[in-house]
Amino acid sequence: MAPPNITVIGSLNTDLITRTSRIPAAGETLISSSYATGCGGKGANQAVACARLSRNKGSEVEEAGCTVNMIGAVGDDMFGRELISGLSRNGIGVDGVKVKGGEKSGVAVIIVEEESGENRILMSPNANYALRQSDFESLPDPLPDLIILQLEVPLITVLHVLKLAREKNVEVLLNPAPAVKLPREAYSAVHHLVVNETEADIITGTTGQKHSWALWGEHVERLIDLGVRHVLITLGAQGVIYLDTKIQWVLQVSGEKVTVVDSTGAGDTFVGAYAAMLTKRGREHRERSYMMHVVAFANRAAAKTVQKGGVQSAIPWRNEVSTENMPSSVGPGIDFDEWKRGMDPASRKRVDDRVKE
Q1: How many CB atoms are closer than 10 A to CB 273?
Q2: What is the Cα–Cα distance from 114 to 145, expressed in whole angstroms?
Q3: Smaller CB count within 10 Å for the chain: N or C?
Q4: What is the reported pTM?
Q5: Which of 262, 268, 352, 353 is catalytic?
């Protein structure tokens, strides 16, 4: 039986990474600690994470738990050629990566603050915005088992792919970053929605409001109302919240205690790890206990990534992510009725009682 196929449709960028002791103020010039270039782009990063986290380091591509294909666009330049080579070196199919003549490859300027590991990113899409709706008359044949999408390519292209996926009943994971409000009908094609807290605020229109995504409130109701079954809100050092809106159940996985060197690739690693583990089972065989394992594994893989500098180079292989004591990081989970009554999904205690302790 052929392994499941994951097709990632999205951006490819060259990352220009500067590390600094602090972020310069307006009009200020600082001497950086280091500078490096690397392959990146949310689409390419997530493809690399899928590929690496589906097999052990040093193993053959044929031993992977899934096949991974990339669809995107690069310029006819040095950066573009290296981006394609980087994917190939990780065992990713690149036939769907188009070289756009007359376009420059995408570039992301990344500043990493050394003490916190936090980053600031300025992206120039370039060839990524040449990935047109007309490039997708149909989905790849054979149909993928899972399509992963982000928003670093034209929105109209993403919406068109979602329409095609809905028509063919292909499972879709959407990571709406950089976040914008999407037409409501777009979510009807999405089975898995992965957002960080800022992205969750933007797509629900709750930016500027004080709330916790671990606590029930109007913000949570708006997120559930989008109609996506599997919703994941990554919380950085606090871990991740997972909602199964069909069975009305919420789970919190605690953050891993690690020293953060560079947080740039954490979210993309989480998406790739989640997808690689998810597709090991068909849709009808993912019971609650298995989804707990999937989310915990993705959370631990992301924590492994932030302990190294770089982006794709920091993404771990499957055998580099320990599953030892992984269940201890997973809360018991509660149903939505308990959540509404003030229960904490991490501890199964009332929030008021937890604060008193």
Answers
A1: 30
A2: 39
A3: N
A4: 0.92
A5: 268
